[in-house]
Structure formats: structure tokens, C-alpha cells
């Protein structure tokens, strides 16, 4: 049965299915594999990680949408101070990450150092359960957020640690601005930007 790929606003009650979909989506993501190197416990760790990000950070302060098998977390310009985790969220994430907490902190600092000064929308998280691959869930969520940014006449930024995603985002108008190499064996982050596009 084909699950609906129509985006809708996510609520607190969606935390469990969102965490489940994103944990599966990011299981082979280089950044998440760096945070959770043990494959046997990675999915459980990722579920806790994404649940915390949603319930404590992006759900209350961002624009979060989901389909049946995918989710996206966006940060509009008025919430840019929430683009990186606050101290309470960091403490909870540190507990989840355990001995990988320090690499996580460094990645947060690296991301914060690259926040552009211009008003913009930020795509913090976008992922679809592999069971939805090829069904348009991720693309539908991406288009929904990009339409909001375009309506406001603002660019969109994101970072990706998965090189295979660059062509996908390029299809939607994103261009690579720079590469950020994380220390101590961390992955490369590609910082990407998409100029606002007219609906005319």
C-alpha cells in the first residue's frame, strides 16, 4: 500500500513516528554514523536523538512537517537563534550520545560558525524512511519548505554530510558554498545555498 506523501504540520503527538522514520533515514548518514558508531545500537540512539531535537528544539521553535514516512525540520528567519541546540537540549543530547558527546559538541560549534548573516530559511533535517524510497516523500517535504522560503523571497541554507545528496539538492537549485572538514576523523560537511526563486 502506498503511504501518502502529502506534507502536513507535525505535532507533539507525531514525535514517535517522526523519530522512527528519521532514525531509519539517517542510519547510513556519515555524520550520524560518526555520532553513533555501533551499528547494533545506532537505530535506538538515533530515535532518541531525533525525538529530542523535535520535542525540545525544532517542534517548539521551527517549522516541522511530516508525511507518513518522512519528516523535515526548518528554521525560519525569526527563529535563527534556535538553529543550533540550546543548553538544555545539549545536555539531553549529551546524555544520549555518551562518549560521542564531544564530537557532537564540535560539530554544533562548526555549524554555528557557518551560520550566514543574511536573513534566510535553514533546512536542519530532512529524511525519509528507506521504505518510502522513490515514492516522493522527501521531495514533497522539500518543495513545501522551499515554497515558504520563496514566498518570503529568502534564500535557503543546509549542510549535508552525505555526498550522494549533493546532486539531489542541486536538482532543487542548491549550490555548494564550501566544505567543512570536521576534526578527529569526522565527516565532511557540504554547506549549500539556494537563492529564492520567483513563482512567476
Question: Can you characterise this structure?
Answer:
- There is one protein chain.
- This protein is an alpha+beta fold and 200 residues long.
- Helix content is 44%, strand content 20%.
- The protein has helices at residues 15-25, 30-35, 39-61, 87-97, 101-113, 137-152, 165-171; strands at 8-9, 63-66, 70-75, 121-128, 156-160, 175-181, 188-194.
- Strands 1-2-3-4-5-7-6 form a 7-stranded mixed beta sheet, with helices on both faces.
- Strand 4, helix 6 and strand 5 form a beta-alpha-beta unit.
Topology:
Elements lengths: L7 E2 L5 H11 L4 H6 L3 H23 L1 E4 L3 E6 L11 H11 L3 H13 L7 E8 L8 H16 L3 E5 L4 H7 L3 E7 L6 E7 L6
Parallel strand pairs: 4-5
Antiparallel strand pairs: 1-2, 2-3, 3-4, 5-7, 6-7
Note the main attributes of this structure.
200 residues, alpha+beta, seven-stranded mixed sheet, 7 strands
Largest sheet, strands/sense/barrel: 7 strands, mixed
Strand order of the largest sheet: 1-2-3-4-5-7-6
Range of strand content? 15-25%
Between the first and last Cα atoms, what is the distance in angstroms?
36 Å
Quick overview of this protein structure:
The chain has 200 residues and is of the alpha+beta class.
Amino acid at each position: 500500500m502506498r503511504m501518502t506523501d502529502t506534507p502536513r504540520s507535525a505535532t507533539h503527538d507525531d514525535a514517535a513516528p517522526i523519530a522512527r522514520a528519521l532514525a531509519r533515514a539517517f542510519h547510513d548518514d556519515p555524520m550520524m554514523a560518526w555520532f553513533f558508531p555501533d551499528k547494533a545500537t545506532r537505530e535506538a540512539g538515533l530515535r532518541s536523538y531525533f525525538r529530542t531535537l523535535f520535542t525540545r528544539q525544532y517542534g517548539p521553535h521551527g517549522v516541522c512537517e511530516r508525511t507518513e514516512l518522512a519528516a523535515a525540520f526548518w528554521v525560519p528567519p525569526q527563529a535563527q537563534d534556535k538553529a543550533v541546540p540550546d543548553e538544555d537540549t545539549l545536555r539531553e543530547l549529551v546524555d544520549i550520545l555518551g562518549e560521542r558527546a564531544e564530537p557532537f559538541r564540535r560539530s554544533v560549534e562548526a555549524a554555528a560558525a557557518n551560520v550566514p548573516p543574511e536573513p534566510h530559511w535553514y533546512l536542519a533535517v530532512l529524511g525519509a524512511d528507506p521504505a518510502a524510497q522513490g515514492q516522493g516523500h522527501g521531495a514533497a517535504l522539500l518543495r513545501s519548505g522551499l515554497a515558504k522560503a520563496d514566498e518570503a523571497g529568502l534564500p535557503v541554507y543546509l549542510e549535508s554530510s552525505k555526498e550522494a545528496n549533493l546532486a539531489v539538492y542541486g536538482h532543487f537549485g542548491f549550490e555548494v558554498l564550501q566544505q567543512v572538514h570536521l576534526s578527529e576523523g569526522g565527516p565532511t560537511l557540504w554547506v549549500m545555498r539556494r537563492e529564492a526563486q520567483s513563482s512567476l
